[in-house]
Structures are given as structure tokens and as C-alpha cells.
Design goal:
Elements (H helix, E strand, L loop, with lengths): L1 E9 L4 H17 L7 E7 L5 E8 L2 H8 L2 H13 E10 L18
Antiparallel strand pairs: 1-3, 1-4, 2-3
Helix pairs in contact: 1-3
Length: 111
């Protein structure tokens, strides 16, 4: 697996539009038959700020290249750069350790 952390600060007043752009990107990822199960994407916002953090995971380098070839990825990358203040930082991540039963970020933990 290959992991990436994407961070940036959103310009004032662009939050609703940005959330729609993110939703459209995730929908395109989810509906792409060749990328299904090969790319995962999680978007978070630092509480009380305009700082956004995205975690992308790809099964392998081939999935990264396939994603990079998609028009919806290029459009989303352009949108991200246009709505961010300053630079968008993309950092490759390496897993050092993890629990044996990872919790899905997509669903709340049952209590």
C-alpha cells in the first residue's frame, strides 16, 4: 500500500464549494470500475480552522498511475490548488505500526 497526506488551508468563503468538489471527487473514485477497491480517500478538517487534511491510500504504484491518468483527478487537483491558500503539501507516509483490527473511519464505532 502507498499512503499520502495532503494538507492545505482553505481560502475564506469557499467551504461549501470545496465540500461539493470533495464529494464529487469521491463519487468519481467510487464509481470508477478500474479503481474500485484500489484507492481509498478520507477528508478531514481540523476543528475550528480552515485547515484540511486528506489521507489517500493506493493498493500499489499501478493504482497511483491509473488515478493520475483520470480526468476527474486532474480537475480535482486543479480545484484543490485554486481553493487553497499557499501551497498544497503532499507527503508520502509510511506505516510504522498498526492495530490488528483497524477501525473504519467511514462508520462510527458502535457503543
Amino acid at each position: 500500500m502507498k499512503y499520502f497526506l495532503i494538507t492545505y488551508r482553505l481560502k475564506d468563503g469557499a467551504e461549501d464549494r470545496r465540500h461539493r468538489d470533495i464529494d464529487a471527487f469521491i463519487a468519481a473514485l467510487d464509481s470508477d470500475p478500474e479503481l474500485g477497491g484500489k484507492v481509498s480517500y478520507l477528508t478531514m478538517k481540523r476543528g475550528g480552522s480552515q485547515d484540511y487534511l486528506h489521507v489517500a491510500a493506493a493498493a500499489d504504484e499501478a493504482a497511483v498511475k491509473l488515478l493520475g491518468s483520470r480526468e476527474f483527478f486532474s480537475r480535482y487537483t486543479d480545484q484543490t490548488e485554486a481553493t487553497a491558500e499557499g501551497e498544497v503539501e503532499v507527503t508520502p507516509l509510511e506505516i510504522v505500526a498498526e492495530t490488528s483490527s483497524p477501525v473504519s473511519f467511514a462508520r462510527p464505532v458502535a457503543r
